Amino acid sequence: MEIENKFPGKDISEDDLKTKFPLAAKKDPEHRSRFTIAGAEFGGDLVPVFAGPNMVESESLIVETAKAIQASGAQFLRGGAFKPLTFPYRSSKYNETREAGIEWLKKAKEATGIGIITEVMEEKFIPLVAEVADILQIGARNMQNYPFITACAKTGKPLMIKRHFGCSLRDWLGAAEYAMVEGNEKIILCERGVSAPHTHRGSSRFLLDLQVVPAAQEVTHLPVVVDPSHATFWAPWVKPMALASVAGGADGIMIEVHPDPKNSAVDPLQPLNFAEFEDLMQSMRKVADAVGRQV
Predict the structure, then answer these.
(1) Residues 6 or more apart in contact with residue 2 via CB below 8 angstroms
(2) What is the tally of structural domains in the chain?
(3) Of 37, 107, 238, 289, which residue is 20 to 30 A from 247 by alpha carbon distance?
C-alpha cells in the first residue's frame, strides 16, 4: 500500500517520519523541543544569538569580542579554532590556531561566563573541544559524516548540525537522527545557505534558504537556527536577512562579528563590527517583539 504524502512538494513522506527519522520528527503540531544550554533556553520565546569571528585569531581579540557581544545581548560566543578552510595553503594570517585557539576560547569563557560554540572537525580532537565548548558545531562539510556525528553525540554535549549547501531537508534530518539515536536530545539545526547558479553578487557562494525554516518546523520539533553571515557572504546583507530570519520564526541567529572586519583573517567581507552588531541586536529585538518572541 502506498504511503500518502501529506507534505506535497517536499521529499519527505509520512513513512519517512515514522521509519527514517522518528526521533527528530514531530509527534503533533505543538511538539517542540525545549532545553537550556549555558542559561539560554531553546524552543521557547527566546531567540538565542551566537556571535563572534570566523576564526579565533588571538586571545586578546576573542576576549575583547566576547565582552562586546555579551554587552549587546548575545548568549553565545562563536569562533573557529579548527577551520575547514577551502584550500590547503596557509600563511601567517590565513591559518588555524587549533589547540591554542581552544585555550583562548576557554579564557574568553572564564572572563565573561558566556556560552561557547565552536566547530570540531576530527574525532581525535573531540575530547579537547568538548572540555571548553557548550555546543559542538558539526560543519556543513561534515553533515553527512555519520560516524563523526555519532562520536560527537556520544559525548552528551549539545550539537549544532549545519546544513550542507547541497543537501535536502530530508538529508538534514537524517543527520540529526544519527545524533539522536545515540540518546543525545539537545540537537540544533542551522541553515547556512544553499548552492545556486545565481547569488546576486560575484563574491557570494550561497543563497539563504529562509523557506527551510517553516518547512523544517512543519516536520521536526528541533530548533532551527539561521546563519545569514555565511549565507550572504556580504556584510550589508546580513542585517536584512537576520531580521527576516527572526520574522520568519528562526529559533536562533548566528552572526559573524569582528572588531576590525576588513582585517579579519578569514572571510573579511561578511563580519559586522561591534557597533553594527549592537544596531542589529536592537533591530532584532523590535522584530522579535512584533512576532511574540524575545532576543
Answers:
(1) none
(2) 1
(3) 37
Note whether 251 and 49 are within 8 A (CB).
no
- 29 assigned to some structural domain: no
CA–CA dist 202, 205 (Å, integer): 8
Q: Which of 156, 71, 65 is nearest to 116 (CA)?
A: 65
CA distance 125 to 110: 21
Residue 10 lies in a domain: no
What is the model's pLDDT at position 5? 54
The CATH number for 165's domain is 3.20.20.70
Residue 71 CA: distances (Å) to CA of 68, 74, 261, 284, 287: 5, 8, 19, 15, 20
Which among 197, 216, 208 is positioned nearest to 239, based on CA atoms?
208
Q: Is the pTM for the entire model greater than 0.70? A: yes
| CA proximity to 225, closest of 84, 42, 10 | 42
- Please check whether residue 7 lies inside any domain of the structure: no
Burial 66-98 (b: 16+ CB within 10 A, else e): bbbbbebebbbbbbbbbbeeeeeeeeeeeebbe
Averaged over successive runs of 10 residues, the pLDDT of the chain (295 residues) comes to 49 92 96 98 97 96 98 98 83 84 98 98 97 98 97 98 96 98 98 92 90 96 98 96 98 98 93 98 98 97
Task: Identify each DSSP E strand in 12-83 by its residue range.
Answer: 35-37, 40-42, 49-52, 76-78
Measured in residues, the chain has a length of: 295
Amino acid at 45: D
Q: Alpha-carbon distance 121 to 198, whole Å? A: 29
- Residue 184 domain-assigned? yes
Range of the domain at 261: 35-85+92-290
